[in-house]
TrEMBL record:
Keywords: Membrane, Transmembrane, Transmembrane helix
Keyword Transmembrane attached: yes
Name of the protein this chain belongs to: Glycosyl transferase
Membrane-crossing residue ranges in chain numbering: 29-48, 115-138, 150-166, 172-189, 196-214, 220-238, 250-268, 321-339, 346-364, 384-409, 421-439
Record lineage: Bacteria, Bacillati, Actinomycetota, Actinomycetes, Micromonosporales
Keyword Protease on entry: no
Length: 598
């Protein structure tokens, strides 16, 4: 964590000879190349075919962020509303500000999406997110915290490629793109310097704006961590901290005003606009960190064991605190080595506090709730906090570990020879087992000609929708969601995978599904369990009502979907007509049955 005692602009460079400066520049280039190479290695299986493969551990979010990239392209090339999409979940739409739609990345990436497709944009952002986060921390560390480029490289390596980051690379563009965070932290702590109230506050405010449009959850984590850090530092060095209060408070005030000017309307739209919601579709303490996960290895680490990780983790995307026993030892060693550094001690305290918060309302050990209460229970239902998946607070100590390792590695050359060698061996034993493996992928079915060759244009006018069966939902209809994203959102669809109100206006609790409809429920249950329901006249009338609500032009059965023949029979029975075979898919043209009012 940046030292409040001394934040240097360029440690030691002012008096260095030109050859050493040149060596530093080479080190910077080498660091960037090495991080980029490792990022490519992690995503290599997706790079082989960005549009033809999906991340097997999280195809739902892979599909969602493909939609997000396509939306960013439509904002730039079609003038679409960046805060709202009317292309999915017709007729209600999707509040894009209320979803993790990374507008700060998808909009700048629009030319790539437009010319190379959403698949390339997704894998490129995941790769640059990992490498960029690593290099951002390397840059801040090497310029402001340590004198050794090697120590900075180690810190950047861990911050960018820790198990938490690699697990989130399974589709979570928002959580691997943390390259703004180091500069937010730096700017906050530099507000204590004379003459930085206005300039520093404005820079900080602009960084906050950018981070909001990448991931608000990360900004919350950063703010909480800095708050704990400052409190810990003040407790350990009160007299020093008091001297900074006025300048930092003034600078934060400038930052808040600067950020609120561009953010006021987007945030208002997020919390009060159409399809806004409150809370999550689960209790705040449901997904928590297991105590035993700290000493285990993540499934995507070299030493990882899938069976153990599954027992201790929420999902493959949430291996947030799998550090391994050797790393736990090195954390203790690093804290001892840095004990006289108040800033490092305060950072360790902040990491410990956020780790305990990530464990939720009661301690879980080996998959079992012990009943031992934890502090998170006191804040579980605080607004904003109740929007967070608790285990993700564990990403904070994961990052702080990297900073402590860098600071300790920078100090290690001052140790006696034997201790220096022992530190180096310990560092290698701690880091090597958690180095990442390439993320697993599966080959996706190719787009049928009906979609790929845009045959659908003969059936779907601009004000109508294409309804895929299974309907796209949080755990079903993934192929339909993928078709939609790869088409560039050229046609509109009902429902989809996104966050919105569960059943407005009666229930505005956040949900991963669109509000229930009789036909979507009937098709989902039949497809999931393979049981043919008895279709009644009421079911047929409800189907026409729902298709009218969705403004349907055609219903398309996804080839190869589970229980394909059963679903074909069911849809035919509901619509009382047989499908046509067009472009490799079964199509029910319902334009003569469905005439929605405009």
């Amino acid at each position: 964590m940046p030292a409040v005692d001394e934040v240097l602009d360029e440690p030691g460079l002012s008096v260095e000879a030109e050859p050493k400066k040149r060596a530093y520049r080479y080190a910077d280039v080498w660091a960037a190349i090495s991080y980029l190479a490792l990022g490519v290695l992690v995503l290599i299986q997706l790079w082989i075919s960005p549009g033809g493969r999906v991340l097997s551990s999280n195809d739902d979010d892979h599909g969602f962020f493909s939609f997000v990239m396509a939306h960013g392209e439509r904002v730039v090339f079609h003038g679409a509303n960046p805060l709202f999409s009317d292309r999915m979940n017709v007729p209600d739409g999707v509040n894009m500000m209320a979803n993790t739609t990374v507008l700060g990345l998808s909009v700048p990436m629009a030319p790539v999406t437009h010319f190379f497709g959403v698949g390339v944009s997704v894998v490129l952002l995941l790769t640059l997110g990992l490498a960029g986060t690593a290099f951002a921390w390397y840059w801040v560390l090497s310029r402001h915290l340590v004198t050794s480029r090697a120590a900075a490289w180690i810190g950047g390596l861990w911050c960018g490629f820790a198990p938490a980051m690699v697990s989130h690379a399974n589709g979570h563009i928002n959580f691997v793109s943390l390259f703004v965070v180091p500069f937010i932290v730096l700017q906050v702590l530099r507000l204590r310097e004379p003459g930085r109230v206005v300039r520093g506050g404005i820079i900080l405010g602009l960084l906050v704006v950018l981070q909001v449009f990448i991931n608000e959850e990360t900004l919350l984590f950063t703010a909480l961590t800095l708050g704990v850090f400052v409190i810990a530092y003040a407790a350990l060095a009160w007299r020093t901290a008091v001297g900074y209060v006025r300048r930092m408070a003034a600078g934060l005030g400038v930052a808040i005003v600067t950020a609120l000017v561009p953010l006021a309307y987007p945030l208002y739209f997020q919390f009060t606009g159409p399809q806004s919601y409150s809370g999550q579709p689960f209790e705040p303490g449901k997904f928590v960190t297991d105590l035993l996960a700290l000493g285990a290895y993540a499934r995507q680490s070299l030493a990882g064991n899938g069976a153990i990780a599954r027992a201790l983790s929420v999902s493959p995307t949430e291996d947030n605190t799998f550090f391994g026993v050797p790393m736990l030892v090195m954390i203790v060693v690093s804290v001892v080595l840095l004990w006289r550094n108040i800033a490092a001690r305060s950072a360790a305290i902040a990491g410990l506090v956020l780790l305990i918060i990530s464990m939720g309302p009661e301690l879980r050990v080996g998959g079992y709730n012990t009943g031992i209460p934890l502090p998170f229970a006191l804040i579980a239902h605080v607004p904003i906090i109740d929007l967070v998946s608790v285990t993700r607070f564990g990403m904070v100590p994961a990052t702080i570990i990297g900073l402590l390792l860098a600071l300790a590695a920078d100090r290690a050359p001052l140790l006696p020879h034997r201790k220096r060698v022992a530190f180096g061996i310990g560092l290698a034993l701690a880091i090597v087992p958690v180095l990442p493996k390439p993320l697993p992928v599966v080959t996706a079915d190719p787009l049928p000609p009906f979609i790929a060759q845009q045959m659908w244009r003969d059936y779907v006018p601009g004000n109508r929708t294409l309804v895929t069966v299974p309907l796209p939902e949080v755990t079903t209809g993934r192929a339909g969601m993928r078709w939609f994203a790869l088409s560039g959102l050229d046609y509109s669809v009902p429902r989809g995978y996104f966050m919105g109100p569960a059943n407005p206006p009666a229930d505005k609790t956040g949900s991963w599904n669109a509000a229930p409809r009789p036909t979507s429920d009937l098709l989902r249950i039949a497809g999931a369990y393979g049981r043919m329901p008895v279709v009644t006249g009421a079911d047929r009338r409800a189907a026409i009502t729902d298709l009218t609500y969705w403004r349907a032009a055609v219903v398309v059965l996804v080839p190869g979907t589970p229980n394909h023949d059963l679903l074909q029979t069911l849809v035919s029975d509901l619509l009382e007509k047989e499908p046509q075979q067009v472009g490799g898919v079964q199509v029910w043209d319902v334009r003569d049955q469905v005439r929605p009012s405009e």
